[in-house]
């Protein structure tokens, strides 16, 4: 009798492709109520998945949470700057940290390799070491980073194209969640 190879299954926090799509669309829709529902779903994922949660999902949810708080009008300008600032600093640090080797590589070089605008790294530097930037610059940084995450991670994971412009992507990048169920941190590095 011939044995069939066992299929490797990866356990993920989301129920399936439909839930993943729903959260992705909810996060990027621009409607604060739907964004909050998507954020609640991501929080549930985090409680199930813990430290295995993909960094892109974590960063996206933090940045969208800032936008929802901003739209609510409940925070003062300084509080919003700090909120956006923390999310932006965390994004740049987490994205570039995985690319650091034994030798320290400048953040600007790592960002350039990842196609992250250099001014976002400069904004992170100001938030970390300098005077707090204006709220408008933090909002713009958030929008640019969310767009980067959408194009670099979310749209590629399930072959969705939320991007306005058409992009030529390999079939490998278009694989569905079943074939690429791990959706781990290394996928979008």
Automatic annotation (TrEMBL):
Q: Which GO terms describe its biological process?
A: maturation of 5.8S rRNA; maturation of LSU-rRNA
Stretches of the chain forming a coiled coil according to its record: none
The superkingdom of the source organism is Eukaryota
Pfam families tied to this protein: Las1 (PF04031)
Q: Where is this region: Disordered?
A: 164-189
Query: Molecular function (GO) terms listed?
Result: endonuclease activity
Q: Which InterPro entries does the record associate with it?
A: Las1
GO cellular component term, pick one: preribosome, large subunit precursor
PANTHER family named in the record: RIBOSOMAL BIOGENESIS PROTEIN LAS1L (PTHR15002)
Tell me what this protein is called. Answer: LAS1L protein
